[in-house]
Amino acid sequence: MTKAADKRLHEALTDIRTMAEEMAQRSSFHVTFEDFRVMPSDEIRDWQDIVREETDDSGYMLPADLIELYTATGGFDFRWSCDADAGVVEGVIALASLPELFQRDDEQDRSMGQCLTEWRRLDSVTPDSYTAIRLDDGVAGLKCVHFKNRQPIRMNLTPRDYVIAAADHLGVIGWQTSDTDKQEQIVRNLAARE
To answer: What domain count does the chain have?
Structure first.
């Protein structure tokens, strides 16, 4: 990752945290924010060893795109809504932790190897709207695919670029598939007024 790309990711993550703090101080916003612990590099290497052991694939390498993202964040769950003249506007950025991408707690009855061959939720907006990646495609570089009503809608963003775009769009629900400029402007105006 270049220094400029690294800087932009860190700026986006800072923007998300700042946005959560500022929204929480305004009466028309309802905010929840949970920041997950960042795994140090040695723990990320240990996690790679766990994946190798669990999948019986001694050569499995964590995709560089994930290492890039998860050395900057441990993931987070940021949900907000605001009461505007035009109705309620909502936003969600629920970035999975690194271990959740490989096997969630509710998947213990399935092998991690099986989980690697399926779409894994990177960002969960609603049960039917989420952005996912395939971990077995890591050699070619990970690309995010957004699912709406459980149907795939192609995106051409790396996980890092996805987080940057989510921050740029304030996490407004639907930014991945439609024009949310109006909702984003409503939220920006409302935040500026208070």
So the answer is: 1
| Residues whose CB is less than 8 angstroms from the CB of residue 179 and which lie 6 or more positions away in sequence, other chains included | none
Closest alpha carbon to 178 in 186, 169, 187 = 169
User: What gap in Å lies between CA 171 and CA 80, rounded to an integer?
Assistant: 9
pLDDT recorded at residue 5: 64
The C-alpha atoms of residue 121 and residue 193 are separated, in whole angstroms, by 35
Contacts of 154 by beta carbon, 8 Å cutoff, 6+ apart: 145
Is the pLDDT at 120 greater than 90? The verdict is: yes
The torsion angle over the Cα atoms of residues 99, 101, 105 and 106, rounded to 10 degrees, is -170
Cβ-proximal residues to 4 (8 Å cutoff; 6+ apart), any chain: none
- Rg of the Cα atoms in the chain: 17
3-state secondary structure of 65: helix
Q: What is the pLDDT of residues 142-157, one digit of tens each?
A: 899 999 998 999 888 9
* Domain boundaries, position 42: 1-192
